[in-house]
Design goal:
Elements: H1 8-33, H2 36-45, H3 48-52, H4 56-72, E1 80-81, E2 84-85, H5 89-123, H6 127-153, H7 155-166, H8 180-184, H9 187-219
Antiparallel strand pairs: 1-2
């Protein structure tokens, strides 16, 4: 079957819908792992209480306070355990930068959600729209496979590159022997969480591809 030649307007909306789909899928996969259940499970798997010299309850208290400051504020990260500060000045400064990055990402995701919702509402019976969603998800699958391989084979380099991109000021190197941030969130935590996010992201992208292609065939012609 010959498809009609898309207009410039549709080409622009096609590209926007594809990118928005990929952004929302990535955000959904990340959000699924930033919850107390997963974090507590992965910290126990990584042996965080022994590494940090805290009891499991103290680990949960410190981690919960840090995440509460990160997502809800205030961004002072002045959590203490047994009257002693958990994070030093450099670690608190880094967490403020992390909050800034997350805020920016949240704004991008919100724009993507609103934009995609508007495009879908106006064009939900158009086959080109669902093909665009499928293409965006297919591109994400390719990127996800590359990222997954990088995480498995070159985690340290990939982790450092990610930090260099988002924290070019360089305040992300901490001594795991003395500084709590890397003790509470050690390499094993990030490696296994990254793998989980990648696998879930790929699964969500594949589901979108299947659903979008079915809808494109339904509205084709």
């Amino acid at each position: 079957m010959t498809h009609p030649v898309p207009s410039r307007r549709n080409l622009l909306l096609d590209a926007v819908a594809s990118v928005a789909t990929a952004i929302i899928t990535v955000a959904a996969a990340i959000a699924a792992f930033f919850n107390p259940v997963w974090i507590d499970f992965e910290q126990r798997r990584s042996g965080v209480p022994a590494i940090a010299g805290y009891t499991p309850d103290q680990v949960r208290t410190a981690t919960g306070a840090i995440l509460a400051n990160l997502f809800f504020g205030p961004p002072d990260f002045a959590v203490a355990v047994s009257g002693q500060p958990v994070l030093d000045a450099a670690e608190r400064s880094h967490m403020v930068d992390v909050q800034t990055v997350l805020l920016g990402f949240g704004i991008v995701v919100a724009i993507a959600v609103v934009t995609l919702a508007a495009i879908v509402a106006a064009n939900r019976r158009s086959a080109w729209l669902w093909r665009a969603l499928a293409r965006g998800s297919a591109a994400l699958v390719v990127v996800g496979i590359v990222v997954g391989i990088a995480v498995l084979l070159f985690f340290d380099a990939a982790f450092e590159l990610l930090h260099l991109v988002f924290f070019p000021q360089g305040n992300f190197s901490f001594d795991p022997r003395t500084e709590r941030l890397t003790q509470l969130f050690p390499d094993q935590f990030w490696t296994e969480t990254s793998i989980g996010v990648t696998v879930l992201g790929l699964a969500l992208a594949l589901l979108v591809i299947l659903a979008a292609r079915r809808l494109a065939n339904r509205y084709c012609g």
